[in-house]
Amino acid sequence: MKTIYLLCSIILFFSSCSNEYTPPPQQKENVPVVLGEAVQNEYFKITLTNARNRTYPENKSVVSIKEVSLWDSSNNFLDKLAAQGNNKRKSNQKAEAGKSYILKFKYDNEEITAKTTIPSSFTANIHRKTQLSNDSLLVELSIKNNASSTDDSFYVIECWASINKKQTKLPFANNDSFIHNNKYGMLSSPFKRLFFSSTSPQQLSIKFLSNIYLYFKDGDSLIIKIKSVNPDYYKYLYNTEIQLQNEEFYLPNNANGYLGVWGGAYEETLTIF
Amino acid sequence: MWEYNTERYISIPIYEIANIDNVINDDSPSIKNYVYGDINGFQLKDNYRIDAGYTFQIKGKKYAKHILKTGIYSLVGKAAPFRATSSVFEGEVNIEEVALPSPMPYVSYTFKF
């Protein structure tokens, strides 16, 4: 009896410490979400959805978006993005490296514009592939921007395995000090994306997990995707990666009238095997 | 003792959006990202508390002094939260404030020599 009384007292004591509540509604109830990546020589594709403000009570009404148009940086009309179901839209225009583009659409009687720039080209090469003693694989590569610019270029690196025709992002390790994952310590290894910025050519190494060859059979492949991206898109990808590791880290509101990102990327692919 | 606090500002997640990988790679379909409204856009609730206490002083040998303090924190009202977190649970924003339980008795003893 004494134990139960003591236990109840302890529960009562600690339950009184915490106070939970829902904040009053703030900001707009619905906001458009633009998510997409414009890659050189590929058709423009985006997903356009609606984000409900979670401080408002549940409301099933969704703001409809009728027309999305694509414009160049001189404000010349290029194309309309056709709806493809599942909130996806696609244009028949292809993105060109070094050019800027604008998306325009009406949302709740307000004109929303999203801008992006496809970065200029770069060259990437694999210098060496070394099979280490524990059957892990070390790949050394170099990246050089082809444009003569003094501004930083922002790069994102991903590794993709194609096993039984199924694409999977493969985690890997890196120790180079200029890589932002290591420099700022916000992301922990193994990484699914590497982030760095540079004005000069860079050499870096990627180390895959031990016994990597056990997972691959004939016909399977391992590739490295290197993307040069615009600064806003870089920041967005970096923040989303942090949020995947730390739930209490929230994405900033980009204050452009929409959420999400319409990123521009110049992509190169290197095949390891 | 009467104490009144206007509380601090925190950033809270108010929008839930799909992860960019769902769109560009058709990857991780269940992963969501949370976006906050304004930086430090929400102010926690103000709070007040009344503490009551008494100090006993007993003189010891020569210069020695025994001081016994006792009382109750937050006899009325509640203590200021020492931790505040925000989260999205089942589609709704929740704010959780964690504070010392109230009322909270205290005893302290000091020996001076």
Shape of chain A: globular
Shape of chain B: elongated
Mean pLDDT of chain A: 86
Oligomer: heterodimer
The assigned CATH architecture of the largest domain in chain A is: Sandwich
Task: Estimate the strand proportion of chain A.
Answer: over 45%
* Largest interchain contact: A-B, 43 and 43 residues
The CATH topology assignment of the largest domain in chain A is Immunoglobulin-like
| Classification by helices and strands of chain A | mainly beta
Number of helices of chain B: 1
Measure the end-to-end span of chain B: 29 Å
Low-pLDDT stretches of chain A: none
Account of the 3D structure:
The complex is a heterodimer of chains A (273) and B (113). Chain A has 273 residues and is mainly beta. Chain A has 2 domains: 30-117, Immunoglobulin-like, CATH 2.60.40; 122-271, Immunoglobulin-like, CATH 2.60.40. In chain A, 12% of the residues lie in helices and 46% in strands. The longest helix of chain A has 15 residues, at 231-245. Chain A is globular, with a radius of gyration of 23 Å. In chain A, 29% of the residues are buried. In chain B, the strands form 4 sheets. In chain B, strands 1-6-7-10 form a 4-stranded antiparallel beta sheet, with no helix packed on it. Chain B has a two-stranded antiparallel sheet with strand order 2-5. In chain B, strands 3-4 form a two-stranded antiparallel sheet. The longest helix of chain B is centred in the first third of the chain and has 5 residues, at 20-24. The mean pLDDT of chain B is 85. Chain B contains 1 helix and 10 strands. Chain B has one domain. Chain B has one helix at residues 20-24, and strands at 2-5, 9-10, 13-18, 32-36, 42-43, 47-59, 65-77, 83-89, 92-98, 104-112. At the A-B interface, strand 1, strand 2, strand 3, helix 3 and strand 17 of A face strand 3, helix 1, strand 4, strand 8 and strand 9 of B. Strand 1 of chain A pairs antiparallel with strand 9 (92-98) of chain B.
